[in-house]
Amino acid sequence: MPNKTLFEKIRDGEIPADIVHEDELCLAFRDISPQAPLHILVVPRNPLPRIGLAQSSDEALLGHLLLAAAEVARREGVAESGYRLVINNGPDGGEAVPHLHVHLLGGRKLKWPPG
User: Fold this and answer.
1) 83 lies in a domain?
2) Where are the beta strands (DSSP E) in the chain?
3) Is the pLDDT at 2 greater than 90, yes or no?
4) Long-range contacts of range 51-60, CB-CB < 8 Å, 24 or more positions apart?
5) Tens digit of pLDDT for each residue in 13-64?
């Protein structure tokens, strides 16, 4: 069996995390190195290495991740003021963990372009 990703270890309870949302397809937890006052990662339970490897069969999962992120944003109180969703793809895109994840960033005015 291949090595688990960091996010699979969090999913399986092997690494503690501040989980703010769980359902049958995904979980969301606070980033341990936040880049904004609110920084939550929304990850699929079953790993998909990156968005660039998604197939048409992943369409429902991808939509679910975005809807879950929007729900978490509402519950965390940033839906009205605004927030950013970010998906990094590959090393040059800032991908640090090879397990698709959506960054939910908010709690302050975010700059554009992001960098």
Assistant:
1) yes
2) 19-22, 26-30, 38-44, 83-86, 102-106
3) no
4) 51/87, 51/89, 51/100, 52/89, 52/90, 54/100
5) 999 999 999 999 999 999 999 999 999 999 999 989 999 999 999 999 999 9
pTM of the model: 0.95
Task: Give the structural domain span for 30.
Answer: 6-106
Number of structural domains found in the chain: 1
**Residue 96 maps to which CATH number?**
3.30.428.10
- Residue 109 amino acid letter: K
Q: Is 98 exposed, middle or buried (CB count within 10 Å of its CB: 0-12, 13-18, 19+)?
A: middle
Q: Would you say residue 1 lies in a domain?
A: no
Q: Which residues contact 99 (CB under 8 A, 6 or more apart)?
A: 5, 6, 7, 8, 43, 44, 47, 48, 49
**Residues catalogued as catalytic:** 101
| 3 contacts 54 by C-beta, under 8 angstroms | no
**Nearest to 34, CA basis, from 3, 76, 90:** 76
